[in-house]
Amino acid sequence: MIRFLTRFAAPLTVAALMAAAPAAQAGVIFSDNFDAQGSSNALNFNGFTNWNVSAGTVDYIRSGVAYGIHCAGNIGGCIDLDGSNNNAGVLSSKLVYDLLAGTTYLFSLDLSGNQVRNESNTVNFGFALAGDLGSFLASELVTLDRTNPFSTYTVAYTPGSNVSARLVIGNSGGDNVGLILDNVALSSEVPEPGTLALLGLGLAALGLRRRRAA
Question: DSSP assignment of 97-110, as one string?
C-alpha cells in the first residue's frame, strides 16, 4: 500500500496543482469604442483613426442624434455597418497584428440590430491574412433582427504557426441599413504567473520521484 501511494503521489500532486491553478487572464492588445472619433453624425465616413473602409461605405453615428439609432450604453459613437450608398463597406484594422503560434487570440465586438428597419442583417467578422482581407483565418457570422439589443460576440483563434493578420468586419448586402457596431477589442489569453509556477513545482516533484525510483 505504501509503494502504491509513493508511486502515484507525484502525478497526483501535479494534477492537484493544475486544478488549483487560476484560470488564464485576457491581456488586452487593442480596443476602440469609437467615442472620440467625432462629435456629429457622418454619412459614408472614412476618416477612422484605427480602421480602413473598403468595398463600400459605413456611417458614423452619435448616439441618439437623429436616425433613431443608439450606441451601446446610449452614449458615445458607433458604426452603422451599411453606409448610405447602397454598398456595405468592409472595416479592416489599420494595424497588422503578428499572432504567435500556440497563443489564443480573442476578437470581440458589440453588435445590435439595425434599430430602424424591420429586416435582419448579417455581419461576418474575424481574423484575415494581412495581405488578403478575403482570406479569413477564423471568423464568425452574426445575424440579428432590427430589435435585437447590443450583445458581445467573440471569435477565438489559435494559430498553428506565426502569422500576420488584420481584424476585419463586414456587413452583408447593401441597402443603407446594417447592424450597429460598438466596443471592439482584441486580447490574448495570458496564463497567470502562479499557474506556471505551480505547474513547474509539480513537474519538479515528478522528476524527483523518478530519480528516487531509479
Answer: EEEPTT--EEEEEE
Distance CA 174, CA 195 (A): 48
Q: Name the residue ranges covered by the structural domains of the chain.
A: 1-23+191-214, 25-187
In 3D space, the residue among 187, 156, 183 whose CA is nearest the CA of residue 28 turns out to be 187
**Tally of CB atoms within 10 A around 148:** 18
Residues 148 and 92: beta-carbon distance below 8 Å: no
Q: Match 453606409 to its residue by C-alpha cell.
A: 83
Question: How far apart, in whole angstroms, are the C-alpha atoms of residue 152 and residue 72?
Answer: 10
Average pLDDT score, the chain: 85
Q: What is the pLDDT of residues 167-213, one digit of tens each?
A: 999 999 889 999 999 999 999 997 655 544 444 454 444 454 544 55
CATH number, span 25-187: 2.60.120.200
Of the CA atoms within 13 Å of residue 21, those in its CB half-sphere come to: 22
